[in-house]
Amino acid sequence: MAEQFYVKDCWYVAGTAEEFPSEKLTGQVIAGKPMVIWRTKDGEVVAYDDRCSHKRFPLSKGRLMPDGTLECAYHGMRYDTTGKCVMIPSHPTGPISPQAQVRAFPIIEQDGLVWIWPGDPERADTAKPPRMPEIGDSKWETITVGPMNVDANYLLLVENLLDITHFYPLHDGNIGDIANSRIPIELEEGENDGYNYVMTIRKTTDYEQPPYLVDWFHFDKVDRHHTHCLVSPGITRVVMRNAPPGGLEQRDVEREFPGELKVDGNERGYVLIHTHTPVDNTHHTWRVLVNCPAQHMSKGDSNTSTAKRVAEMFPEVAAEDLWAVALQQKMFEFPEDGYSEVFLKPDLALRRARKIFQDLHRAEIAAQEKAQAAE
Ligand code: FES
Ligand SMILES: [Fe+2]
Predict the structure, then answer these.
(1) Among candidates 164, 213, 142, which has minimal Cα distance to 348?
(2) Distance from the CA of 51 to the center of ligand 1, in angstroms?
(3) CA distances for 373 relative to 126, 210, 362, 366, 369, angstroms
(4) Separation of CA 180 and ligand 2 centre (Å)
(5) Measuring from atom 4 of ligand 1, which residue has the nearest CA?
(6) Whole-number mean pLDDT of the chain?
(7) What would the 3-class secondary structure string for the chain be?
């Protein structure tokens, strides 16, 4: 994988709903596009090009006026929520050129997340953001870890998330469990809601849980299904279902989405929603939304919810992953010189994930070339 890239025609998470309080301007870069994003007085979230159409000054450094327009901090051009300039202070009466307009980005708020389509707006209708039903459902407790800035191409994080064999030694001392990394992997692939997905499944029976999983999920010995699914280029879902031996619901297809984990049964576990949003080729933004059934408390501390205990562990684990992927990224600066990566058997899902990204990237390039040829 000498070539690094990101997919532009995709719905990416720009933040949780709470990250966009009313009338607060935020500047972000998503897939190479600078954007100003905010929630209007009426509660709608809008996003457009952060570069003022006049002299590229970042509009996110401007301010919102009482009439809801955004005023550029440099020469004061004002834009409405669609990105159209509606007032120029130095030409109060003159006509406003239609060029005085910034491009708005397709945006959808759904399941407590704000999704943005940084790519070709004409293609935004080809897919909908994947559903994340646990977020905002009162039967679930959701805790967000992040946003974290990652100094690496987002595919390096996706590979990290799909790969449990790095738990030992990278996470030795917290979630590292060498027995875990030896559990055979099943692979499931398919298409869901317009996205090709790849999922790894680790099934164990009569498994002696490490102490931290006993604390989170109570049972000392379990039957367990642990799945890691690349849902779309922007989302990876990790689901762990535990039940006392013999008590785990068996399924033909592991992906029974939504509701992979039943909140009211005898199973305990979590749904981790990882959002990986590319900034550029060598940076991305990572959030982890930890979801556990709201009534589940930790075994070690019955006053602390399972979700809270899981989320508490995350910053330490994430720091190790951040360290690893940033160091990997640095190595891409060297010429290949005949270098090639060795693929191990457990890396099969990584290979499939890369293919999903590559296919989407190629399709994008082909579409661009076709559009250019038609011009
Ligand atoms: S740069 Fe924004 S008004 Fe001049
Ligand atoms: Fe990790």
Answers:
(1) 164
(2) 9
(3) 22, 59, 16, 10, 6
(4) 13
(5) 75
(6) 93
(7) CCCCCCCCCCCEEEEEHHHCCECCCEEEEECCEEEEEEECCCCCEEEEECECCCCCCEHHHCEECCCCCEECCCCCCEECCCCEEEECCCCCCCCCCCCCECCECCEEEECCEEEECCCCHHHHHHCCCCCCCCCCCCCEEEEEEEEEEECCCHHHHHHHHHCCCCHHHHCCCCCCCHHHHCCCEEEEEEEECCEEEEEEEEEEEEEECCHHHHHHHCCCEEEEEEEEEEEECCEEEEEEEEECCCCCCCCCCCCCCCCCCCCCCCCEEEEEEEEEEEEECCEEEEEEEEEEECCCECCCCCCCEHHHHHHHHHHHHHHHHHHHHHHHHHHCCCCCCCCCCCCCHHHHHHHHHHHHHHHHHHHHHHHHHHHHHHC
CA distance 203 to 182: 11
Residue whose CB lies within 8 A of the most ligand 1 atoms, among 55, 61, 97, for a mutation test = 55
**CB-ligand 1 contact for 91 (6 Å cutoff):** no
- Is pTM beyond 0.85 here? yes
**Tokens 């050129």 sit at which residue?**
97
Structure tokens at 64: 């919102």
Six-digit token pair at 211? Answer: 């102490």
The residues placing their C-beta within 5 Å of ligand 2, an ion, are 321
pLDDT tens-digit map of 300-349: 999 999 999 999 999 999 999 999 999 999 999 999 999 999 998 889 99
Question: Residue 273 C-alpha to ligand 2 middle, in angstroms?
Answer: 14
